[in-house]
Amino acid sequence: MSIATPRHLGGLDHFPIGLGCMGMSDFYGPADEATSIATIHAALEAGVTYFDTGDFYGSGHNEMLLGRALAGKRDRAFVAVKFGALRDPAGGFTGYDLRPVAIRNFLTMTLKRLGTDHVDLYMPARIPEGVAVEEVAGTIADLIQEGWVRNFGMSEVGAATLRRAHAVHPVAALQIEFGLMTRNIEHNGILDACWELGIPITAYGVLSRGLIGGRRAMHARDFRAHSPRFQGENLARNTALTDALAQAAQRFGATPAQAAIAWALSRGETILPLIGARTPQRLAEALGTLALDLGPEAFAAFEAAVPDGAVAGTRYPEAQMQWLDSERAPAA
């Protein structure tokens, strides 16, 4: 399989790399809107089809930004939206609401902000403990029947929860963190369940939020300022890993970011990496991955540089880890 092989999702063949738009509005410090829109346009022109957002990214700002960028171009984009998170006026998170009436309300606002009459993939961002995932799946199934949503997706759920949702309505994709520095799904039954059920994965965190080939936390509102992987001894250990990856990547004519993206693509044609590029330049670097000629020797070198399980620190602060069904649920 070539890493440039299209990925099949939602009944369509997709460009093998998708654009994650979150950082254009939230969690990584200030972003320039004109540059963000130029990046989305550059992605479209390059053939990118999959665009990922959330209704809580920037408390609606990201959807409005994406809507403006896709004006007159909506038919060229497959838009995936996460929902359910509640925000306060100061930008904090106050929980999740997955009641059927709330889901319908979230979707109504999303359609307005995006300036569209449907969402291509709609998924709850998290499934808190005690929430009946069958009811969530049933509500989205109704929205699909009504034409407002095209496909049902899940995000950060364990294998057992994924199976329960899929039994109510087919899950078109699972969004979850996966990359050289985060390989949990290879060991906890999630990847196996996806293969068994025929569910593709949209992988975020492929560059481990900039640990690989990116900038370190520079802004008070940057997620990385509070991420365990960017703190103290953890950061020192993780930087040593990424330095080793940079050396391995150079041997094969790649940047560290390209090495990480290529590795994710190499894990199978059911993996669609999402890259959070915020500038046309970073996007071009990511897309340049597809022109590389890499074989087993290269991927073995990348894995040797960043051994499975070697990363230090959890992928979210402890309070946020508690919301991850994918971390608390047993393998099934």
Radius of gyration: 19 Å
SSE sequence, one letter per element: EEEHEHEEEHEHEHEHEHHEHHHH
**Tally of DSSP β-strands:** 12
Strand order of the largest sheet: 8-5-4-3-12-11-10-9
In terms of structural class, how would the helical and strand content be classed?
alpha/beta
Instruction: Quickly name the level 1 CATH class.
Output: Alpha Beta
Q: What is the CATH T-level topology?
A: TIM Barrel
Which ranges are low-confidence, i.e. pLDDT below 50, for 5 or more consecutive residues?
A: none
User: Judging by the overall fold, what is the CATH architecture?
Assistant: Alpha-Beta Barrel
Q: Count the domains.
A: 1
Mind telling me the CATH superfamily name? NADP-dependent oxidoreductase domain
Q: What is the mean pLDDT?
A: 93
- Total of helices: 12
Helix-residue proportion: 25-40%
Distance between the termini: 28 Å
The fraction of residues in strands falls at 15-25%
